[in-house]
Amino acid sequence: MKDISEILTEILEKAFEKAGYDPSFSRVGISNRPDLCEYQCNGAMAAAKQYHKAPLAIAEDVAAQVKQAAGSAEVIGDIAVAPPGFININVSPEYLASHLTAISAEPALGVKQIGKGKKYIFDYGGPNVAKPLHIGHLRSAIIGEALKRIYRFCGYEVIGDVHLGDWGLQMGLIIEETRRRMPDLCYFDSDYSDQYPSEAPFTISDLEEIYPTASARSKEDAEFAAAAHEATAKLQYGEPGYRALFEHIIRISVADLKKNYANLDVDFDLWKGESDVQKYIPDMIDRLIDDGFAHESEGALVIDVAQPGDAKELPPCLIRKSDGASLYATTDLATLLERERDYSPDGIVYIVDKRQGMHFQQVFRAAKKSGIAREDTLLYFLGFGTMNGKDGKPFKTREGGVMRLEQLIADINEAVYERIMESSPYTDPDEARKNAALIGLAAIKYGDLSNQPTKDYIFDLERFVSFEGNTGPYILYTIVRINSILKKYAADGGSPAERILPAGSASEKTLQLLLSRMSEALEGACTEYAPNRVCQYIYEISNAFNSFYHETKILAEADENKKTGYIALLKLTERVLSQCINLLGFEAPERM
Description:
Shape: globular
Number of helices: 21
Strand content: 5-15%
């Protein structure tokens, strides 16, 4: 479905052409001065350079053609020209109402399917196995999940991949520490030939203690460190007992990760990791050498990725160390190889800490240079900023350690629960706990997503859980308020409300205009990889609705036709808000 900007652009295309100007100057956009007009065309300024004519005169010529054009009055309420050459447009209230009624009849609410026929892979999450999720994993999960949902709603086929950190020395450390503690396990018996046990010799809690212990020991005990390296090598060369232990580690870790991601309402289509692409690496490296893309440098194997015109020197992409070990770049190139073979995507988007920017620039260039990735495959790195405490430093626990994600969620839910019980002391505690979980998740996600992904931001618990201002709970409160009105209308036997009426007040028209712009908001979120565009959009809708609500007697309206028009408008407002928060990854409770 065309949005209003497109419809107005088509009208002005004809007007520019009839006035003797190139119709390419006719693009209409949402006005950045809503106090002056609703939509705006700035093409006369650009046309002035080509036609050597005053932009104001060009704008007046075009506006005159619009006023004379048959049918334009159905869409345009009024059109005016302002110096130095702006064409200011307000939409007809009647047309806007009919446009919204048509949007209401569509399951996708008029959102254009800009991604139809395109396949994208979103690489987000990136947790290490055998380690608990901590707040460092929060932004990747929240931003990636939101973008995945937004892209899908806009018609893209999207595959979400968690990309586990499940290879390398950390596995050797865990295996060697397990061997020291339980040397008699069959996994360490080279003569063992029976089937290995289906039950693991450790739990997720054990693993979360084993790894940091082993890591600390390796820094102090050279003999242990050497043994861990040897265990890593044995695993990578396929030692049966070590492979069986590795499978236990993966199975237990993934089950725990799925549970914790579910608490964030985050899920992945693929649970692949670095270990899944090890089989591609030997042949890949041989080809890179044979085809002349990789060469030795100080004993290591590298691919030169610097290009003329680089603002800063870009070091070569290191794909094999002098001791023969692979690196993250090796694994990432092999992962690209697998994704191209299995999915042939149009684009792959990585949602990773922005400090990894150089690494991905090297990998992307190496992949394109060597043909691992097709030239027309989009490889995009969305580097996110840091979540900081009020002191401006990376968020920590009171003790100064890295906070576990489940603890952060628990703290926010408790803060919301306390606020609910303070404001409504007679609320059923079980209902309050259930609502606190929904509101808490909205507070976390909206608090993060309302910021530009690339920017650092301050995690302010008190502000995030507030029911006022630009917060998740405020958006939820607006939805709950609308649903309360709709339920009361239905309980009172209200008539079916399907047609939205022309706005009768400024606040009503502001709300209607915003509801007509959902497609533009989501398209902007896609093209800019910016879920904050959706947050800003629903915040503006919530403000507009609450202004309309406070100025309008909705259920007390005596004119039944006008009342049903209000209800139809509320239904659309609730649908737009609820759909948008679903795309951001949270939902509203029934009551607040």
